[in-house]
Amino acid sequence: MVRKMKVYSTSFMAFFYTAIFFYGADALVNVTRNGATFTTVVAAWPEVQDKSPLADVFRGFFYVVFLMFMQLLCGVYTTVITMTICLSHQYKNLQSYFHNLRRIFDENVSQRQKEAKYLDGFKLGVTLHAKTLWCRQEWQSICNILFSLQVILNVIVLILTLSQMAAFRIPMAMYHSGWHHCLSAPEIRKLVVCAMRQGQKPEVLWALGIVPMSYESYVSIVKSSYTIFSVLYSQN
To answer: Please, what's the largest Cα pairwise distance for the chain?
Structure first.
């Protein structure tokens, strides 16, 4: 369990801080190569084009505050990962404990002693299970807001993904825009055809530059996650 927590927590923190590092490095490269401003967090002030020294100082300050906030967020998610692994391991321990109770009846003692020992062991297992459920309820109450925000975030991402379907209606809107009333401008037909052909190309947002944010991708990610979980669960 400890090794699993270290692996998952270290991997998450490594990916997290790598992303934060390259986030600031990309802005710094943009400053040195293109002469742009060091803009990592878009704030109400200063404006992106403002290159005054005071604006640069505040941009650095905003970036430091951003790093502190992201560190706090990383700590929260690392705690969630650690506690989730602990609870999962505790449930597996309970499963193993109840499965091993049957070995009591293989011992070379009387039937009454076997039953008494089994009863005591089963009561102990029920007590441990009750304590585990109490820990789960306490953990639920602590992270209730975090879990709720995560669900809301996933729903918002799914809604934004599915809203791309509205882009397919643009060519039909162009067709019904009244172009046939332009009797003295035959070039409008070519323009309408080209515009409709351009509008028929699928408008897709991309995650990590390789994963299209579509309904098919969402279903594929859910299936892949469940497959990985099934493989890990079967091995354990």
So the answer is: 107
Collapsing DSSP to helix, strand or coil, 206 comes out as strand
List Cβ neighbours of 23 (8 Å cut-off, separation of 6 or more): 40
Percent of the chain residues topping a pLDDT of 70: 82
Q: What is the pLDDT of residues 22-74, one digit of tens each?
A: 888 888 888 888 888 888 877 778 887 888 888 888 888 988 888 888 888 88
Going from the C-alpha of 117 to that of each of 79, 95, 112, 154, the distances in angstroms are 38, 18, 9, 49
The beta-strand segments (E) located in the chain are 206-207, 211-212
Q: Where are the domains of the chain?
A: 1-142
Distance from C-alpha of 18 to C-alpha of 12, rounded to nearest angstrom: 10
Query: Residue 204, by phi and psi: left (phi above 0), alpha (psi -120 to 50) or beta?
Result: beta
Q: pTM for this structure? A: 0.58
Phi and psi based region of residue 209 (left: phi greater than 0; alpha: psi -120 to 50; beta: remaining): left
Q: Which tens digit of pLDDT belongs to each residue from 205-216?
A: 666 556 666 667
Residue from 186, 233, 207, 190 nearest 88 by CA: 233
